[in-house]
């Protein structure tokens, strides 16, 4: 067994800016990160596009694909790519689930509903998938489609919702005729309604159920009017806009009722699981009162949790991630510890272990409850508590490998507040300062990296050359530091040849464990 001990810190959303446009990482006072960059083996990693299994290098990285790659040392084709392929090859439309959904509405003359994130962010969903599914449904004889749109502004520009609404409405207008009727039925900002994750706030899902299923809520004639009115009244950016219902003559145009079919067209799991539980769950579901639950056929775009089999029905198989680092460490007899706060807990456990919700026997997982606020109001988040917990784990001397995620750069970065994000980055640096002292004392090698950028690019230039607030991740590279009393040298540190999938092989190299043949190369 190895006598080495390793800690891996993921500084979520802390990348390296090229433009320095709204670069909260450089603006922040980060004495520890600055010192490490001068003193330690250091390189940068590619964290987007092909390096993490996304369709193209125009696709920014995200936590799901980033933590998958960090945790498995391999590059798997991810949801965005798998759905594209399934639609292009026709496999999705030949699937049993798709045909069941469509035949159900044909035989019952009922409605096919689509619920999901309306953008081309390609993190949770892509509007192009939605448009293709609507067109195919018409071709196959569905007569009525209703779409429940979650407004993004978090993976795409902050106030871009009208672009996607117009795009969808144009597509539906072209399809609508005497035999086919498609409309937007309800919606709301993704951080207010439906897309909660890791059970941080079930009230969001309850509101989604009331809005999409029951058609309860403030009524508008159309989605553009809803966005415009709600924006004027609240000043909120898209992700925070309140829920709305589209109605005609006082009646919602698309309640979900007995006999309907429902597709959640998001492919990423974290924010799709709770709504799926509400649709699939029987009487044992107690997270909120669903009232009389309509008898529908429900399917997700992907299987969102392969262990718990959520949802029951889905359209595309998720990537089957094998030979994860946790599995390899378990086989080698090493003990692992994982910690983060609620907002990133599943990232450092479920995504880390290749979308596996059961832990290995050799692992201990710890969740620190997140605040239920917009994180510009508490930019330090739980960085101090996570650090306290890490120090306790180190001092327990129980663990060979400790991993953690500090969410600040990402979660505060998504709010678009530069001032708050600077505080978020500084909180991470302070956490590292405290952590490194104890890690050194107990003989741990500490690897520090990030899963993608965000805080490094808080502003962006639009096509007209105007500067706007950026709430989305960046496409920038991320840092990789080795802090150790042992001497390690990163091969070709100045090149740009490494990506997130090179981290796990590096960890195994430190432990002196042979990596599975399918893994990428170690950097040392
Ligand atoms: O879900 C979110 O908050 C964003 O779409 C992506 O952020 P994450 O990939 O960092 O979770
Ligand atoms: Mn992330
Ligand atoms: Mn993020």
TrEMBL record:
A Pfam entry, by short name: Metalloenzyme
Sample GO molecular function, one term: phosphoglycerate mutase activity
InterPro entries: Alkaline_phosphatase_core_sf, BPG-indep_PGM_N, Metalloenzyme, PGAM_B_sf, Pgm_bpd_ind
An example Gene Ontology CC term for this record: cytoplasm
Binding site for Mn(2+) 2: 12, 63, 451-452
Example of a GO biological process term: glucose catabolic process
Co-factor(s): Mn(2+)
Flavoprotein is among the record's keywords: no
Domain (BPG-independent PGAM N-terminal): residue spans on this chain: 83-305
SUPFAM superfamilies found in the cross-reference section: 2,3-Bisphosphoglycerate-independent phosphoglycerate mutase, substrate-binding domain (SSF64158), Alkaline phosphatase-like (SSF53649)
This protein's record includes keyword Manganese: yes
Keyword annotations: Glycolysis, Isomerase, Manganese, Metal-binding
Top-level taxonomic group: Bacteria
Residues in Metalloenzyme domain copies: 4-514
Enzyme class name: isomerase
Listed pathway(s): Carbohydrate degradation; glycolysis; pyruvate from D-glyceraldehyde 3-phosphate: step 3/5
This enzyme's EC code(s): 5.4.2.12
Family: Belongs to the BPG-independent phosphoglycerate mutase family.
Function: Catalyzes the interconversion of 2-phosphoglycerate and 3-phosphoglycerate.
Name this protein carries in UniProt: 2,3-bisphosphoglycerate-independent phosphoglycerate mutase
Source species of the chain: Ruminococcus albus SY3
Lineage: Bacteria, Bacillati, Bacillota, Clostridia, Eubacteriales
């Amino acid at each position: 067994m190895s006598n080495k001990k390793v800690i891996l810190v993921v500084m979520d959303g802390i990348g390296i800016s090229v433009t320095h446009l709204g670069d909260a990482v450089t603006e922040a006072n980060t004495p520890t990160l600055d010192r490490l960059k001068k003193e330690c083996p250091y390189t940068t990693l590619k964290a987007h596009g092909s390096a993490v299994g996304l369709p193209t290098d125009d696709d920014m990285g995200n936590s799901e694909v980033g933590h998958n790659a960090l945790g498995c040392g391999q590059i798997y084709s991810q949801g965005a790519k798998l759905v594209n392929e399934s639609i292009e090859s026709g496999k999705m439309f030949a699937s049993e689930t798709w045909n069941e959904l469509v035949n159900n509405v044909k035989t019952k003359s009922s409605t096919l509903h689509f619920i999901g994130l309306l953008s081309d962010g390609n993190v949770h969903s892509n509007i192009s998938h939605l448009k293709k599914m609507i067109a195919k449904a018409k071709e196959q004889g569905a007569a009525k489609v209703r779409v429940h749109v979650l407004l993004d502004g978090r993976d795409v520009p902050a106030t871009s919702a009208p672009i996607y609404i117009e795009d969808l409405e144009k597509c539906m207008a072209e399809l609508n005729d005497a035999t086919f009727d498609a409309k937007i039925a309800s919606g709301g900002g993704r951080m207010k309604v439906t897309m909660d994750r890791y059970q941080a706030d079930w009230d969001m899902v309850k509101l989604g159920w009331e809005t999409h299923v029951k058609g309860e809520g403030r009524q508008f004639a159309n989605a553009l009017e809803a966005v415009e009115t709600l924006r004027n009244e609240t000043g909120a950016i898209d992700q925070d806009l309140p829920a709305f219902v589209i109605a005609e003559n006082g009646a919602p145009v698309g309640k979900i009722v007995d006999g309907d079919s429902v597709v959640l067209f998001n492919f990423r799991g974290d924010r799709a699981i709770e709504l799926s539980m509400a649709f699939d769950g029987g009487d044992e579901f107690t997270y909120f009162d669903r009232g009389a639950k309509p008898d529908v056929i429900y399917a997700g775009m992907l299987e969102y949790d392969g262990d718990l089999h959520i949802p029951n029905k889905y359209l595309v198989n998720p990537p089957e991630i094998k030979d994860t680092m946790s599995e390899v460490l378990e086989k080698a007899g090493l003990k692992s510890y994982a910690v983060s706060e609620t907002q990133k807990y599943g990232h450092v456990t479920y995504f880390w272990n290749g979308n596996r919700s059961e832990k290995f026997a050799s692992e201990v997982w710890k969740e620190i409850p997140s605040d239920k606020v917009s994180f510009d109001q508490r930019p330090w988040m739980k960085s101090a508590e996570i650090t306290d917990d890490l120090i306790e784990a180190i001092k327990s001397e129980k663990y060979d490998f400790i991993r953690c995620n500090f969410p600040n750069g990402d979660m505060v970065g998504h709010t678009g507040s530069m001032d708050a994000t600077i505080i978020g980055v500084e909180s991470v640096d302070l956490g590292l300062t405290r952590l490194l002292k104890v890690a050194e004392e107990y003989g741990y090698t500490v690897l520090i990296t990030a899963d993608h950028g965000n805080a490094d690019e808080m502003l962006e230039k639009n096509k007209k050359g105007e500067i706007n607030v950026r709430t989305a991740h960046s496409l920038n590279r991320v840092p990789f530091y080795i802090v150790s009393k042992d001497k390690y040298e990163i091969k070709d540190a100045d090149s740009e040849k490494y990506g997130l999938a090179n981290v796990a092989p590096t960890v195994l190299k430190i432990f002196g464990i042979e990596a599975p043949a399918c893994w990428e190369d170690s950097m040392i």
